[in-house]
TrEMBL record:
Protein name as annotated: Multiple inositol polyphosphate phosphatase 1
Superkingdom of the source species: Eukaryota
Protein's cellular compartments: Cell membrane
Organism field: Lactuca virosa
Keyword terms: Cell membrane, Disulfide bond, Glycoprotein, Hydrolase, Membrane, Signal
Protein family (similarity comment): Belongs to the histidine acid phosphatase family. MINPP1 subfamily.
EC number from the UniProt entry: 3.1.3.62, 3.1.3.80
Catalyzed reactions: (2R)-2,3-bisphosphoglycerate + H2O = (2R)-2-phosphoglycerate + phosphate; 1D-myo-inositol 1,2,5,6-tetrakisphosphate + H2O = 1D-myo-inositol 1,2,6-trisphosphate + phosphate; 1D-myo-inositol 1,2,4,5,6-pentakisphosphate + H2O = 1D-myo-inositol 1,2,5,6-tetrakisphosphate + phosphate; 1D-myo-inositol hexakisphosphate + H2O = 1D-myo-inositol 1,2,4,5,6-pentakisphosphate + phosphate
UniProt xrefs under Pfam families: His_Phos_2
Length: 499
């Protein structure tokens, strides 16, 4: 009996070791860089497994909407200047420590000779080669996944590609299009073909840069800056004290913020994780990541209804394009005579609000709360787990794909839609937690409560530029007609083409 008991204890011990090693993954700082996370790294984060729906065989995709953030980019000119200034600050900190006779034994050797990797650069913010690669391969994967949708000969009215008037967004659109249409033309060894990328003026682009035209949002964001800083301050102060004690340098909170920014840039853009990132413990990285996620929640996400409701023109356009695809299906339009995909490339300020508009990353009763315009609780602080993470919500090249399906058979609903977030099916709280939702339910439960608000009213269009207002008024009038049933499909189609 004693022998059996010993064997049992040994087996239990071995099981626990095996279970522990499989459950606890090694900490990878590259997965904790908030919205500076690379796309390939983000796709490897497996925290909230979701069993996707089995799409019936009698269902086939008839239209696709893509809303994507640009790929990995270089730091902006302002942030590069901040890093150059930090180089001088670091020299001053080291000199001061020497004069005080502080023990610098734990100080990493790289700090003594550190220079900004972007020193001397006069331009910034551009899409870098890794970002081009992300978007190029995303285009290839989407084409392969939805081969029937992308089987037609390219025409800009069949596959519409739009980008904001910011170079990294339009460059992302070009990279994506090169992947999407590779082998479809006669240009060069890659058999590429030319394609059009459309952009609206930054002053009037309420589709992809609605935050630029929204005066009320700009005022809200400016007003929130002190409040956000106050929420982050205790974490930054605590980490600053820890850094100072650990390395013997009189770091300030501003230094901590700069080091965290440097960590994100080095790890994401340069694959360097043992310099700036190595100054922080894993717990400190998790807390710094949380402060970024908290700020994103407050000024871009569910922290305020205006953050996402100002994106109603984009949601309107998505549904209009699907309505047009249904009309084409119902009336038997010939292939190549109607739009099959709308592909949009913009920014985190576009992707995050749009994700909120369609109710992603919500848990339990939170969907009902936002419908009642009740504020949600802030993302929980580590070590508590949270769904709202910038590294998965809006990494570089992050995207939402909304696929409209036509289903034959005796179903009451003929048209369904599925949402893919970063190419993975994701549940929609407004559709009962499923990723495969009847199109009419999506319109009624998710879209309609937002679309009863006009962009003009939300953003105080009376003081905006005329082109913003006229465009908004026109698209709001079209969409109001669809939901009231007063406009026929022919009128809607012609108005959409005019817009």
């Amino acid at each position: 009996m004693a022998m059996v008991a010993k064997i049992g204890l040994i087996l239990l011990f071995l099981y626990r070791i095996q279970f522990s090693s499989s459950a606890e993954q090694p900490f990878d700082v590259r997965q904790h860089l908030a919205t500076v996370t690379r796309y390939g790294v983000s796709k490897d984060i497996k925290e909230n497994p979701f069993v996707s729906s089995n799409i019936p065989d009698q269902c086939s995709p008839i239209h696709l909407n893509l809303v994507a953030r640009h790929g990995t980019r270089a730091p902006t000119k302002k942030r590069m200047k901040d890093l150059e200034n930090f180089s001088a600050q670091l020299k001053s900190l080291l000199k001061n420590a020497k004069e005080r006779g502080a023990s610098l034994e734990k100080l990493p050797s790289w700090l003594w000779e550190w220079r900004s990797p972007w020193k001397g650069k006069t331009k910034g913010g551009e899409l870098i080669s890794q970002g081009e690669d992300e978007m190029y391969n995303l285009g290839i994967r989407i084409r392969e996944r939805f081969q029937d949708l992308f089987s037609d000969e390219y025409h800009h009215d069949v596959y519409q590609i739009r980008a904001s008037q910011i170079p990294r967004a339009s460059a992302s659109a070009v990279s994506f299009g090169m992947g999407m249409f590779s082998g479809r033309g006669e240009l060069g060894v890659g058999k590429h073909r030319a394609f059009a990328v459309l952009s609206e003026s930054r002053a009037s682009d309420i589709m992809l840069r609605f935050h630029d035209c929204c005066k009320n949002y700009k005022a809200y964001r400016k007003q929130q800056e002190p409040a956000v800083h106050k929420l982050k301050e205790p974490v930054l102060e605590e980490i600053t004290h820890s850094l100072a004690a650990r390395y013997g340098l009189n770091f300030t909170m501003k230094d901590t913020t700069t080091l965290w920014f440097l960590c994100k840039q080095e790890a994401s853009l340069l694959d360097i994780t043992d310099q700036a990132c190595g100054l922080f413990t894993n717990d400190e990285v998790s807390l710094l990541e949380w402060t970024d996620d908290l700020e994103m929640f407050i000024v871009k996400g569910y922290g305020n209804a205006l953050n996402y409701r100002m994106g109603v023109p984009l949601l309107q356009d998505v549904i209009l394009s699907m309505e047009h695809a249904i009309k084409a299906k119902e009336e038997g339009y010939a292939p190549g005579s109607y739009e099959k995909a709308t592909l949009r490339f913009a920014h985190a300020e576009t992707l995050v609000p749009f994700s909120c508009l369609i109710g992603l990353f919500l848990e339990g009763s939170e969907f009902e709360q936002i419908q009642r315009e009740e504020p949600l609780k802030y993302p929980p602080k580590p070590p508590e787990k949270r769904t709202w993470r910038g590294s998965t919500v809006a990494p570089f090249a992050g995207n939402n794909v909304l696929v409209l399906y036509s289903c034959s058979g005796n179903n009451t609903n003929k048209y369904f839609m599925q949402v893919l977030h970063n190419e993975q099916p994701i549940p929609m709280a407004g559709c009962g937690g499923t990723d495969f939702c009847p199109f009419e339910v999506f319109k009624e439960k998710i879209a309609a409560p937002h679309l009863k608000h006009s962009y003009d009213d939300l953003c105080n269009a009376k003081v905006q530029e005329p082109e913003c207002k006229s465009y908004t008024s026109k698209i709001t009038e079209i969409f109001g007609s669809i939901f009231s049933g007063k406009t026929n499909n022919d009128e809607t189609s012609s108005q959409k083409e005019e817009l």
